[in-house]
């Protein structure tokens, strides 16, 4: 005869065996784990994104603020018979000549443009235009909680052919989402019956 004490002892033994089997068959070392705030999570996916942000800065410097040095060279005498067009000399002297140069940084980090404006044999202005690409790398890790054993308590029953059985029921959910349940059913004459069941999770596409 099944007594209440024997019933709960049977339940504890069955659940203990199932938990022990699940602990042996489920190995966390097979999966990549990540600890967050002291709690372990299973790593599902790692994503690395690289983005570039262009920073532009323009600076203009007056010619008087640019370091310059005058070099005196040996004077060359011009023969008196050489014809000199004064208007052309004055035109070239007073004209503004623009020189542009570009420095391309390695690894696609950007460019630096330099523009010099020259007039009357002097640099009257220099413009710097820098476009630097700021590289940002974002690492995203997608995690989920590790599966754990869960125990549920409730009621179960069977009815048919004028017979009604009802009683307490315990269900164990394993780390692999399999279900094991055991219960005690009682009829109207207080006859006791033990019920048990097993369900395995089916993965559907």
Structural summary, described in words:
This protein has helices at residues 4-25, 86-94; strands at 33-36, 39-62, 96-104, 110-119, 122-145, 150-160, 163-173, 179-186, 192-199. The chain has 2 domains: 4-26 and 147-199, Pantoate--beta-alanine Ligase, Chain: A,domain 2 (2-Layer Sandwich), CATH 3.30.1300; 48-67 and 82-141, no CATH class. The strands form 2 sheets. Strands 1-2-5-4-3 form a 5-stranded antiparallel sheet. It has 2 helices and 9 strands. The chain has 205 residues and is of the alpha+beta class. Helices cover 15% and strands 53% of the residues. Strand 4 (110-119) and strand 5 (122-145) form a beta hairpin. The chain starts with a helix and ends in a 6-residue tail after the last strand. The mean pLDDT is 79.
């Amino acid at each position: 005869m099944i007594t209440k004490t024997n019933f709960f002892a049977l339940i504890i033994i069955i659940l203990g065996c199932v938990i022990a089997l699940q602990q042996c068959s489920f190995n966390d070392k097979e999966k990549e784990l990540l600890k967050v705030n002291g709690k372990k999570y299973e790593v599902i996916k790692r994503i690395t994104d690289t983005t570039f942000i262009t920073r532009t800065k323009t600076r203009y410097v007056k010619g008087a603020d640019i370091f310059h040095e005058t070099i005196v060279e040996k004077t060359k005498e011009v023969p008196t018979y050489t014809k000199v067009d004064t208007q052309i000399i004055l035109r070239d002297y007073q004209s503004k000549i623009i020189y542009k140069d570009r420095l391309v940084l390695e690894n696609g980090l950007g460019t630096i443009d330099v523009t010099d404006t020259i007039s009357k044999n002097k640099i009257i202005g220099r413009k710097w235009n820098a476009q630097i690409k700021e590289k940002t790398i974002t690492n995203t890790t997608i995690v989920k909680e590790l599966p754990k054993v869960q125990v549920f308590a409730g009621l179960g029953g069977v009815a048919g052919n004028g017979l009604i059985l009802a009683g307490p029921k315990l269900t164990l959910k394993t780390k692999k989402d399999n279900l094991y349940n055991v219960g005690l059913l009682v009829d109207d004459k207080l006859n006791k019956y033990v019920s048990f069941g097993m369900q395995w999770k089916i993965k559907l596409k």
